[in-house]
Amino acid sequence: MGQVHVTDHPLIQHKLTIMRKKDTTSMEFRQLATEISILMGYEVTREMPTEEVEIETPLEVTKGVEISGKKVVLVPILRAGLGMVDGFSELMPGARVGHIGLYRDPETLKPVEYYCKMPGSLKDRQVIVLDPMLATGGSLTDAVSLLKERGAEHIQAVCIIGAPEGIEVFKKAHPDVDLYIAAIDRQLNDHAYILPGLGDAGDRLFGTK
Ligand code: PRP
Ligand code: URA
Questions:
Q1: Which of 26, 37, 79 to mutate to test ligand 1, by most ligand atoms within 8 A of the CB atom?
Q2: What is the pTM of this model?
């Protein structure tokens, strides 16, 4: 069964507080999203399998440990998920990156798919879905459904802020998927924005408002 992991390390809380401030610039916002992603990545990768290997130091032969197991694919949900790719790629430079394009229809608030490009054989990969915001839960839920339809069997989801109602929706739809989240906020407003939240993550990352 998947679990909800709240990764509320003090450094993450501190950086998230700066992200939330309305006067934080896009440049600062992007940098903070990267730093939080690196810190969250530490927890997300905690259970990665390892294997013992023999190596030679300049002085003697010894045993070391290397990551083994499935190859990782990072899947940002466009646009805002892109803000988390650099941080995770720092930790796992060999990871492939698949993209899912979804936007929320402003009237229905339902996600609309407009792009999907994945590396081959998702079945054999560890898939890490990235999206800073989990509001109604529709986008993350649909993204994970799409990945499962394409064969993915080992999926983790990583969000920075979630609303309680969205987390419930996601857990119900995908009880097998572990969700990592840095903060669970109070509620959604009438336009399905997270309160207190940080506003529109895509606009803040890319300076489009
Ligand atoms: C935002 C965010 C999530 C989605 C969350 O994307 O990045 O993907 O909303 O909302 P939900 O949980 O109610 O589905 P948005 O649709 O604003 O697109 P953008 O990233 O391109 O701005
Ligand atoms: N998407 C965002 O970017 N922010 C919210 O608060 C909700 C959805």
A1: 79
A2: 0.97
